[in-house]
Design goal:
The protein has about 130 residues and is of the alpha+beta class. It contains five helices and six strands; from the N terminus they run ααβββββαβαα. Helix content is about 30%, strand content about 25%. The radius of gyration is 15 Å and the shape is globular.
């Protein structure tokens, strides 16, 4: 957590706005459900924002979170700009996020359970 290698350039309005709200929600879900598993990372995509600094650090186009609690999962993508949609509009299935990122989340689950959990999400369960 506290290493510079764990940092990504993020638009200040996103960082202090919707991304911060999402991180607060994840903490509240952990308290409510006892345990959550969270994957978080950058999406470079078209590299719309290029690089910054003398070391040419890539500025991600967006950021994602995939969250699992019990038999419920939800994913989010927020673009690295000040005009992000609310969390409901940024939410999606984990399957959709896997297609977007090329990553396989929650692969430790039994395949039948993983397929069911990752293919749907409930805004009601997550209190959104």
């Amino acid at each position: 957590t506290f290493y510079f290698t764990n940092c990504c350039p993020q638009n200040q309005s996103l960082n202090a706005g919707q991304w911060s709200t999402l991180e607060d929600k994840v903490r509240s879900w952990a308290k409510k459900y006892g345990q959550v598993i969270v994957y978080t990372g950058p999406i470079v995509g078209a590299n719309e924002y290029g690089t910054i600094g003398e070391n040419k650090v890539v500025v991600p186009d967006a950021f994602f979170k995939a969250v699992l609690s019990g038999n419920q999962a939800i994913a989010f993508v927020m673009y690295n700009c000040p005009n992000n949609e609310n969390m409901q509009k940024c939410s999606m299935t984990v399957d959709d996020l896997e297609v977007l990122t090329g990553l396989d989340f929650f692969q430790e689950l039994d395949d039948a359970i993983e397929e069911k959990i990752e293919s749907t999400y409930s805004l009601k369960y997550w209190n959104l």
